[in-house]
Design brief:
9 helices, 75% helix, 0% strand, transmembrane helix, transmembrane transporter activity, transmembrane, cell membrane
Length: 232
C-alpha cells in the first residue's frame, strides 16, 4: 500500500533501464574482416564469380572505348579495321555502342553472379547459426548483425570488382593490341579507361550488396534461441 504521508515528489523513482552499448563502426569492421579471414576459401569462391562477371563487363566497356577512340580520329583505315573485326557500323555512326547480343550476355553474367552470391551467403548464414545466436544472446541488435553481413559483402565486393574491372580492362587492351597493333595505345583515352573501370567496380560492389541483402535480413531477424538450438 502507498504511504499517504509521502508526497509524489518524495516517492522513490522506478529504476531506469540503461541504453544498450553500441559497438563502434571500427569494431564492426574488424569483426567483419576477421570473419572473412576465417572463411577465406569460401569468400574466395564467392568473390571469383564476381571477378569473372565484372571483368567481362569491363572488357566490353573498354573495348568500346578503344573503338570510339578510333572513330574519333576520323581515319577511314581505322574505321574499316573496326568493321572487319566485327563492329556493326553504319556510314553515319560516330560511336561504337554495345550490341544487343553483348548486352544480353552481360546481363546474364551479372544475373548468374548475383544468384551465386545469394546462394553462398545463405550457406554462410546456415554455418553461422551459433555465432549469430551467441552475438544476439550477448545483446547484439538486429541492425548490428545486418551491418556485419553488409560490411563483409562490401569488402568482398570492392576487392572482387576492383580486380575484375582492372583485369577486364587490361585484357581488352591486349586484345586490341593483337588485332590492331600499337595504334591502340595512341587513340585510347585513359580517362575513358579509368571511367569504365570505375563504373564496372561500382556495378560489382552494388551487385555484391544486393546479393547479400536477403541473407543478411534472414540472419538479423533470427531468434537467439532458434540459432543456438540449430544443429551444425
Amino acid at each position: 500500500m502507498k504511504n499517504p504521508n509521502i508526497s509524489p515528489q518524495e516517492a522513490p523513482k522506478a529504476p531506469t533501464v540503461r541504453r544498450l552499448v553500441v559497438l563502434p563502426f571500427r569494431k564492426s569492421l574488424e569483426i567483419s574482416f576477421q570473419s572473412i579471414r576465417v572463411r577465406f576459401l569460401r569468400s574466395l569462391i564467392t568473390t571469383m564469380s564476381l571477378v569473372l562477371a565484372v571483368s567481362f563487363l569491363s572488357f566490353i566497356n573498354v573495348s568500346n572505348d578503344i573503338a570510339n577512340g578510333f572513330l574519333a580520329a576520323g581515319d577511314p583505315g581505322l574505321r574499316q579495321a573496326l568493321i572487319r573485326s566485327g563492329y556493326d557500323l553504319a556510314p553515319e555512326d560516330t560511336r561504337a555502342d554495345t550490341s544487343p547480343k553483348q548486352q544480353w550476355l552481360v546481363f546474364l553474367s551479372l544475373l548468374v553472379c548475383v544468384v551465386g552470391i545469394v546462394n553462398a551467403q545463405l550457406m554462410a548464414v546456415t554455418e553461422r547459426f551459433r555465432e549469430i545466436g551467441t552475438m544476439k544472446c550477448l545483446g547484439a541488435l538486429d541492425r548490428f548483425v545486418l551491418r556485419l553481413f553488409l560490411l563483409e559483402a562490401g569488402m568482398q565486393g570492392l576487392a572482387g570488382a576492383g580486380i575484375g574491372a582492372l583485369a577486364g580492362g587490361i585484357f581488352a587492351i591486349i586484345n586490341s593490341l593483337i588485332r590492331f597493333g600499337a595504334v591502340t595505345l595512341t587513340h585510347l583515352s585513359w580517362g575513358d579507361f579509368f571511367a569504365s573501370a570505375l563504373m564496372s567496380t561500382g556495378t560489382g560492389c552494388l551487385l555484391s550488396l544486393i546479393g547479400v541483402l536477403y541473407p543478411a535480413m534472414v540472419a538479423a531477424r533470427m531468434q537467439p534461441v532458434e540459432a543456438m538450438r540449430a544443429e551444425q
